[in-house]
Design a protein that fits this description.
With 120 residues, the chain is of the alpha+beta class. The protein contains five helices and four strands. The chain has a four-stranded mixed sheet with strand order 1-4-2-3, with helices on one face.
């Protein structure tokens, strides 16, 4: 049975979880830096995404988030799911959200989200 709980993961625990990494894609250092900066700036939010472990106890999703915890030295509160019966080949296969997608989700309207340039 899948078990999910909220955990605050510190750098030590992140390293422990990463040591249980199953076959995974290569780590993107740019993605780790982006996540680490978000943690350092206090921008990271609990969002429903979980660090995932399969039935064998192998970490199958979350290596970039865990690496960001280590890089930043800042703990992250996140969901952690255990006993996931699926293989890593079917996890995290969704389409990456564009800036337009994100703006629409945030309620900024289709007109703004479809703009070619957004001034900050």
């Amino acid at each position: 049975m899948i078990e999910t709980r909220i955990e605050t993961i510190d750098p030590y625990t992140a390293q422990l979880y990463l040591s249980q990494n199953a076959v995974n894609r290569n780590v993107s250092l740019d993605r780790v830096r982006i996540y680490a900066d978000s943690l350092i700036n206090g921008d990271w939010q609990l969002n429903g995404e979980s660090i995932k472990f399969n039935e064998a106890g192998e970490m199958i999703d979350g290596q970039h988030r865990l690496s960001a915890i280590i890089k930043s030295g800042v703990p992250m509160t996140t969901l952690v799911s255990y006993n996931i019966p699926t293989s890593a080949s079917v996890i995290d296969r969704g389409r990456v959200r564009s800036l337009s997608d994100s703006l629409t989700i945030e309620g900024l309207g289709r007109e703004l989200s479809d703009a070619k340039v957004v001034a900050m």
